[in-house]
């Protein structure tokens, strides 16, 4: 089971590190964000019992939000982690495929 881990803020409804299966992340087409996409993710402490965390290929991605504020290119009033074309998502998917 491959996956992407994303951290979410306690203030945004997350709290703990979140786990996203790679297929779901890839098919989602953009970087998930809390609280909008919490259903796509699983709290790392709530993984199904059939998932052996020590046998998972885990990738932790730390990144800066591309459209975080008024000075950001293409800012449309709502902070977003990626460009409108989802370039960062595509880069993460490509990088994971190369590692895997």
Please state the overall shape, judged from the principal axes of the Cα atoms.
Answer: globular
Q: Which parts are unreliable, with pLDDT below 50 for 5 consecutive residues or more? A: 8-14
Q: Give the N-terminus to C-terminus distance in angstroms.
A: 11 Å
Individual helix count = 2
The string of secondary-structure elements, in order, is: EEHEEH
Give the strand order, joined by hyphens, for the main sheet.
3-2-1-4
Mean pLDDT: 81
Rg over CA atoms, rounded to whole Å, is 14 Å
Strand content: 15-25%
Helix proportion range? 10-25%
- Tell me how many strands there are: 4
Structural class: alpha+beta
Largest sheet: 4 strands, mixed
Describe the protein's architecture and organization.
With 100 residues, the protein is of the alpha+beta class. 20% of the residues lie in helices and 17% in strands. It has two helices and four strands; from the N terminus they run E-E-H-E-E-H. It has helices at 22-28, 87-99; strands at 2-7, 17-21, 42-43, 57-60. It has a four-stranded mixed β-sheet. The longest helix has 13 residues, at 87-99.
């Amino acid at each position: 089971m491959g996956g992407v881990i994303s951290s979410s803020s306690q203030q945004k409804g997350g709290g703990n590190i979140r786990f996203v299966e790679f297929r779901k992340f890839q098919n989602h087409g953009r970087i998930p964000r809390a609280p909008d996409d919490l259903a796509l993710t699983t709290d790392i402490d709530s993984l199904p019992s059939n998932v052996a965390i020590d046998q998972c290929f885990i990738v932790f991605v730390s990144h800066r939000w591309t459209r975080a504020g008024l000075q950001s290119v293409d800012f449309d009033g709502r902070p977003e982690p990626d460009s409108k074309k989802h370039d960062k998502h595509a880069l993460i998917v490509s990088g994971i495929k190369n590692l895997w």
